[in-house]
Write a structure and sequence with these properties.
single chain, 325 residues, alpha/beta, 11% strand
Length: 325
């Protein structure tokens, strides 16, 4: 067993000076190397472990039962044994808990009940939803809790390791472990962003709303273009959506364009009629987003109140009356 197991200061950055988030540690500045275990060699766990290995840490074991997890471990963590979770925990100074959000509380409670956690052992989960309180059962047994959530979508391939460079991490940690959390994120190429414990659900909701719903939005737009006879919807949408994303990140609501922001109620009514015919499911999403867009355009001063009233009447008519607006 690694001699640093019960002394986090020897196996972590606890006594290292804090670095600016943009400063990646030089090899000579790196803290003592950790023995890292991964519980859940999914897309996130395998990639983060690969990044920590590049930083010089030793990946001593991983758990994974599916064929996909085994293939991923072979590709990203060659030579690392796949073991039951309790054996992974026993070998590691730092344990990455990279399981689905809903499985995390049960996993942590099971670890505590089985007395699998050692005092001084670093426990790092990657859930966006939770802060460190979800690790309380293990913390009471002496574990050191960290929440490090990479703000990125993962494919589970080597490409993700490169994408970690400059990636933001939502970090929640006890004050005495902030330097440790920061050092680990920077070593993986990321930028730490501190999130308060009670703000984690809102933080995660914002990310899910932006990223997950963006995929749904783009996929549904491509579907409609295909039905309209466009042969290569992705090629048509690429420049448009790229410019829209760039403009919105730069200017927020002031980047709003299109018939809703202009108050073109007749155009929106035509959209509603056609979407009702072609895809009632997408129509529901269109109406909800159009209402929110109108509200935001009105608040930003882009949409005149009279135009907004006519526009919202069209959108309300779709749901309330069910007739052709």
């Amino acid at each position: 067993m690694n001699s640093s197991s019960t002394n986090p200061a020897r196996g972590s950055a606890a006594r290292q000076p804090s670095k600016k988030p943009s400063e990646k540690p030089r090899p000579q500045d790196r803290p003592a190397r950790l023995a890292v275990g991964v519980v859940g060699a999914g897309r996130v766990g395998a990639v983060l472990a690969a990044a920590l290995r590049i930083a010089g840490h030793a990946i001593v074991a991983a758990s994974g039962v599916s064929d996909a997890s085994r293939r991923r471990a072979e590709e990203l963590l060659p030579g690392v044994p796949l073991l039951p979770p309790q054996d992974v925990i026993a070998r590691a100074d730092l344990v990455l808990l990279t399981v689905p959000d809903d499985a995390l509380p049960t996993l942590v409670q099971g670890m505590a009940d089985a007395r699998a956690v050692r005092p001084g052992q670093l426990l790092v989960h990657t859930s966006g939803r939770y802060g460190i309180s979800v690790l309380d059962p293990a913390t009471r047994a002496g574990a050191l809790p960290l929440a490090l959530h990479p703000v990125m979508t993962f494919t589970g391939t080597g490409v993700d390791v490169e994408r970690l460079e400059g990636c933001s991490f939502g970090v929640t940690a006890p004050d005495q472990l902030r330097a440790v959390a920061e050092a680990l994120v920077v070593e993986m190429g990321g930028e730490p962003c501190w999130v308060a414990e009670d703000r984690r659900p809102l933080y995660h909701a914002a990310l899910a709303h932006g990223a997950n719903h963006l995929v749904t939005l783009v996929a549904s737009a491509m579907e409609l273009l295909g039905r309209a006879g466009v042969e290569l919807p992705s090629r048509m949408l690429g420049p448009l959506l790229g410019a829209a994303l760039d403009n919105s990140l730069r200017s927020g609501d002031l980047a709003l364009t299109g018939p809703v922001a202009r108050g073109d109620a007749g155009t929106v009514a035509a959209h509603v009629r056609e979407l009702r015919r072609v895809s009632p499911e997408i129509l529901s999403a269109y109406v909800a987003m159009a209402r929110l867009t109108a509200d935001r355009a009105l608040a930003a001063g882009l949409l005149a109140p009279q135009a907004a009233e006519a526009l919202l009447g069209v959108l309300a008519g779709d749901n309330d009356r069910g007739d052709d607006a």
